[in-house]
Specification:
With 244 residues, the chain is an alpha+beta fold. It has helices spanning 2-20, 33-36, 70-79, 90-100, 115-122, 218-224, 229-236; strands at residues 45-53, 64-68, 101-110, 127-132, 138-139, 143-155, 158-170, 172-173, 178-179, 187-194, 197-204. It has one domain. Strand 8 (172-173) and strand 9 form a beta hairpin. The radius of gyration is 26 Å and the shape is globular.
């Protein structure tokens, strides 16, 4: 009798303990196939747009941003004469870089009347640079590399300043094991935020009926060819071996 009573008490105590446990929070849903696949832009070359702020005309209409994937790198290679002694292995390293990182070539120009502001802007001095997703998430570059000195050209009463800077962003979120920008993102912006103003370049995602980025137009191809393949990848090829 005592044994039966003890068993009943034990069962009741166990049931009470189970009912008092804090229910576990549901885990995050598993990532969708679109989240597991890297965002691919509908086209590679895009123009600057004014967001908001004090200086709506700081950057000129000749500004372009180029999303450099392996196909754009191949286009650069086809139009750039190789140096007399190209470095061995540069083609393999170029592919590794475009496979491992988001590489964006930003060609900026300005004819802003205040030359001190214009000169700072073309150097991206005092300007916060980042990729922005529609939800507001920001991804900052791991490297920014200017190419060449600042070019100056007199245009009537103003000076036109121009310079190209290459921005390199992480492609994978190593903690989550997912791309930093999934294919489900409807668009991505490269934002230049500074001097009380905001500007951006925008790439929409590939629509359902499109299998890849559309081919660049003849005008876009001119911008793609401005920074040579060998100049670009000789400079950034060491990124291909950062995790070797």
């Amino acid at each position: 009798m005592r044994n039966r009573f003890a068993a009943v008490v034990a069962i009741a105590a166990l049931a009470t303990a189970q009912s008092c446990k804090t229910p576990q929070k549901p885990g995050p849903p598993p990532p969708t196939p679109a989240q597991q696949t890297l965002f691919i832009p509908a086209w590679n070359v895009t123009t600057v747009q004014t967001g908001q702020g004090r200086y709506p005309d700081l950057f000129g209409g000749g500004c372009r941003a180029i999303w450099i994937d392996s196909e754009i790198a191949a286009m650069k290679r086809n139009v750039a004469p190789p140096p007399p002694l190209p470095e061995p292995g540069i083609d393999e390293d170029a592919k590794k870089v475009t496979d491992a990182y988001i590489v964006i070539e930003c060609q900026l120009e300005t004819q802003f009347a205040d030359m001190s502001v214009a000169y700072d802007a073309i150097r991206l001095r005092g300007i916060d640079v980042y990729l922005e997703l529609p939800g507001g998430n920001k991804i900052r570059p791991i490297q920014m590399r200017p190419y060449g000195s600042i070019k100056e050209e007199q245009v009537q009463a103003l000076k036109n300043f121009s310079r190209t800077t290459v921005m390199i962003f992480p492609r994978q979120d190593l903690g989550a094991g997912l791309p930093v920008i999934g294919a489900d993102a409807p668009a991505v912006r490269l934002v230049l935020d500074g001097h009380d103003s905001k500007y951006f370049f925008e790439w929409p995602g590939i629509p359902a009926e499109q299998t890849g980025p559309r081919m660049p137009t003849a005008e876009e191809a001119k911008y793609i060819g401005q920074l040579g393949y060998y100049v670009l990848f000789t400079d950034i090829r060491r990124l291909a071996h950062i995790f070797d």
